[in-house]
Amino acid sequence: MAAANPSPVDARIREYIRRDIQDTRTNSRNSDLDTVRCGLGEIVDVMSNSITQKDVQGLAARIKRRKRATSNDLIRLSKAFMRNSDNISTFIRIPGALNVIIKEFTGQDADLKLWATECLCNLSLGDDFCCEKVALLAGTYLLAYVKSSNKHLARLCLWVLCNLASGGGKTLNTLMSQEIVRELVAVVQNDFDENIKNECLNCLELIVSHEGHVLSEEDNKIIIHAATEEKNPQTLGGIQLLYRYLSGRDFQLPDLVDLTKIIHFCTQHLTNFPTKAPTRDIALGFVLYAIRILGNCTSIQEDAAHIFLQRFQEKPLSDTINHLLESTKQDEVTRELLWFVGSLHNSSYPVVRQYLERDSLVHNTRFPVITSF
């Protein structure tokens, strides 16, 4: 059954998600940067409040002439960019000025590298021309530093990438050509820092929330493979990525091979609980994400419902649900399963109605009383 075209409401929801992520990231960035500024940053703060476009031109000309920038230069520029978008437009249109910032960004001095990254972060809030230039000249370096052991640097780089990706267009196409999806997926799978992983997931969600043609067939395969074929995962990164990916696509997958992989992957976390996982909490996390993915997919695509219910022709779904309720004894799992059963019960798909005639989930499942909300 073909998936329906996204409605104007879906488009508004995707736009809301993009704005919500950007607002949250901006607030987090301001708070985070305030905690690391000291000394020089506080002194320059007063100077930068009154910086004009003429001052920006002068600073740009000076760093271009000297082919380097001091901490003072970078802090003043960063604050000027944050204060006024005209300052960004003025700076970015001076040939060679951005190259100096990127030189400090890729240099050996750790402090200059951080201040240069903050400059790039604020520049990435500029217009399309500015973002395209930052992506073209700095994109590959930003992706490399996302894997840095310096987590503050890695997080700043991810903020830049999120800003760039959120605008779409040529900027996003440039990042896609630099294999941003492959690089971020690798971090999600391997990085144990929750802040870094979540920022990567935010960035991937922003990418996916743009029109479907942004992702190449290879990108789609990378994401689905990373989530569904990871052996003995040590974190929830893979299934979190899958949930964000599907959410960005309104849980619609026209490719039946990919859809089947995802449905089977999620179903096994219900039928084989507890699956192999480092901790019980991670095993429960897989169950919660699996229920949410299955519930959304089966309510939107009849093909998904058919693939899912085929797995319960011999052993009824109600037995699996009762086993989960008894094994987990978690109110959160109980709530998710109640939602899932309700979704199936209200489904109008013939394949679901026929299954429920044989296995009435409402009558055959034994839900406990939920003690917390």
Structure description:
The structure is a single chain. This protein is an all-alpha fold and about 375 residues long. Among the domains are: about 110 residues, Alpha Horseshoe (Leucine-rich Repeat Variant); about 140 residues. It contains 21 helices and no strands. Helix 8 packs parallel to helix 10, helix 9 runs parallel beside helix 12 and helix 12 packs parallel to helix 14. The two termini are about 35 Å apart.
How are the SSEs placed, and which strands pair?
Layout: H1 8-36, H2 40-48, H3 53-66, H4 71-83, H5 85-92, H6 97-105, H7 110-123, H8 128-145, H9 151-166, H10 169-177, H11 180-190, H12 194-208, H13 217-228, H14 237-248, H15 256-271, H16 280-300, H17 302-310, H18 317-328, H19 331-345, H20 350-358, H21 361-364
Task: Explain briefly what this protein structure is.
This protein is mostly helical.
Task: List key phrases describing it.
mainly alpha; single chain; 21 helices; disordered N terminus; ARM-like; elongated; 373 residues
Q: Strand count, sense and closure of the main sheet?
A: none
The low-confidence runs, each spanning 5 or more residues with pLDDT under 50, are: 1-10, 32-46
Estimated helix fraction? over 70%
* Overall morphology: elongated
E-strand count:
0
| Helical stretch tally | 21
Q: How does the helix and strand content classify structurally? A: mainly alpha
Beta-strand content bin: under 5%
What is the rounded distance between the termini? Answer: 37 Å
Note the run of SSEs as H and E: HHHHHHHHHHHHHHHHHHHHH
- The pLDDT mean sits at 85
Rg over alpha carbons: 24 Å
